[in-house]
């Protein structure tokens, strides 16, 4: 089985078109993203080490879960274009694999704050509710009883009878659809599938120069997590699935595109994520620091976002890699290919490809490699620049 290579998502302006069909532009809404380690006082070295640890954990999870099932985007008239702020989620000392948090609110008449890990590798949206087993979060869990618009999804609903999320049989006294969702890192969440009103921000003007009006989107389905256990040790309250699956947030909003700007690793500011709408002065173009470039997704029947990687160049030298090394069926079945992923901060490559890239990089830099163990050689690369006069100030 070919390995999947994972493309990094560091501080970039990213525009993802989810459908090739011509779709009328919907009014854009936004949310904020925040950075995992923002404001926690880590040094630059600590930030990089934590980034590498998360990325390795994330890659391991993606490799082991690449056979996740896929479904076509549900059909339906109308779409909701929304935006939310993105923030990088704080991680604990374990192998947490999240990078950015999206902030929005759920419920009426008083929307309740949630902070969800933005995850392009899964499709379930869930947040902690009144729990039997919970992880710590910095603000109250979602109180379904305090919302006038929370509705339980019945066991007879197709999403419950599909066999993808519910516990076996769904034989509960209140006829409520329960779900059990486990991740390859052994983390699990279970609880009720409900629907409620999600409130986002609607961008008005450039870079927040005008007030942001709330945009309420009714009947969004999500998991109301009551048993949540694993490596959830962040300032998150749950996960927002952003994959191509039918329960993901983009799918439920019926948007043809979403876009976001990621902050730098040491930046404490928030950055926007837009769902729906066309690029323009009130969308990604207002936040881009350079030209917005695009590349098409590879044809895929899976839920992940596959790209076509043509090759790797170090300096001006193209590595002699077989084009088949990049090829994949793009089916989400673990048959290779390259995906772009929200939770991976460092480019991840299969072993032989990484070793070829590493050798070319070492030859280009022309500095002695620092002493390292065999294990380090597979994940880190350090040079002894202090011993050398006239060490190069730029790297390829």
From TrEMBL:
The keyword Amino-acid biosynthesis does not apply. SUPFAM superfamilies: Acid proteases. Pfam families: TAXi_C, TAXi_N. One of its GO terms (biological process) is proteolysis. Belongs to the peptidase A1 family. Residues 100-396 form the Peptidase A1 domain. This is Peptidase A1 domain-containing protein. InterPro entries: Pepsin-like_plant, PEPTIDASE_A1, Peptidase_aspartic_dom_sf, Plant_Aspart_Prot_A1, TAXi_C, TAXi_N. GO terms for molecular function: aspartic-type endopeptidase activity. Keywords: Aspartyl protease, Glycoprotein, Hydrolase, Protease, Signal. Coiled coil: none annotated. Residues 1-21 form the signal peptide. It comes from the Eukaryota. GO terms for cellular component: extracellular region.
